[in-house]
Amino acid sequence: MSDIVAFIGLGAMGAPMAANLLAAGFALRVFNRNPARTRPLAERGATACASIAEAVRGARFVVSIVSDDDATRAVMLGDAGVVAHAAPGTVIVDSSTNTPALAREVAQAAAARGLACVDAPVSGSVPQARDRELVFMAGGEAAAFEAARPLLDAMGRMAMHVGPSGAGATLKLVNNMLSGTLTAALAEAVSVAQAAGVDPQAAQAILVEGPSGSRLTRTKLPKMLAREFSPQFQLALMEKDLRYFLALAQQVDRPAPLAALVRSQYQAARRAGFGALDTSALAAHVAGEGAPPTA
What is the per-residue pLDDT across 5-44, written as a single tens digit (0 to 9) for each? Predict the structure, then answer.
């Protein structure tokens, strides 16, 4: 494929997503604040760049996935960022989990320079990113979404245009509120079941078949029962997403008491030292256990 794709952000999610684009035949340029993260992709044929400006110069597409609004603002809107240096006609695909307000701000700034921007966050964590099982929810102009579809198809199993700029970011926050709430409910259930002496294997076999049965339950329940909290989705990032969801609920004047309670649990766990671990580590916090020394 002749179109150049610039990929910004090679963290836990970005690295496998970029690898899948490379495997699909896209000409890939990569940038990360820590240049060491670009080396595995460079060894496979990607071009490692020393700056965002170098990465996006002449690129047809730019894909970004970074941690939050502040990181996205720097990547997209800073003097050294994407909007300032991408050529007119470039399509930006931002897969970060941001507030809808920031997604719209970036889209407006991009449009003013002749760029198109799609806010396309994902459902799924590291295993889904690695296995091309991500689900993209995209906001922005339909034409820009269709232009970016080959990239989305190379990184995931489903991509849907859900509305104008900010719609993807909105649906992502709704999705993560549900994910965070279910994880919190599982943590509470596991704590009680273990304290009552229920056989862990039996609990796992039954609970994945019950009303909470889902991909998330099948993924998080074994980690909770085994106390294996290597991060697939960091607890601190989930707390951030719940905070963004609550701000959105306030903006649209809708009550969100369950989300507020769940966010307080994640906040307490983060403050107790579990933030860098997987969201499943909430089970240890609920059970009154201390965070591991490496947390």
Answer: 999 999 999 999 999 999 999 999 999 999 999 999 999 9
Tokens representing 260 are: 């507020």
267, amino acid identity? Q
The pLDDT assigned to 270 comes to 98
- Calculate mean pLDDT across residues 232-261: 98
H helical segments located in 156-281 = 167-195, 200-207, 215-226, 235-251, 257-269
Neighbouring CB atoms inside 10 A of 211's CB total 7
Please report, for the chain, the start and end positions of each structural domain, with discontinuous segments joined by +: 4-163, 170-286
Q: Strand runs (DSSP E) across the chain, as ranges?
A: 4-8, 27-31, 47-48, 61-64, 91-94, 116-119, 122-123, 134-139, 156-163
Q: Indicate the pTM of the whole model.
A: 0.95
- So which residues are the catalytic ones? 172
DSSP 8-state assignment for residue 234: B
Given the candidates 3.40.50.410, 1.10.1040.10, 1.10.10.10, 1.10.1020.10, the CATH classification of the domain at 170-286 is 1.10.1040.10
Given this structure, which CATH class describes domain 4-163? alpha beta
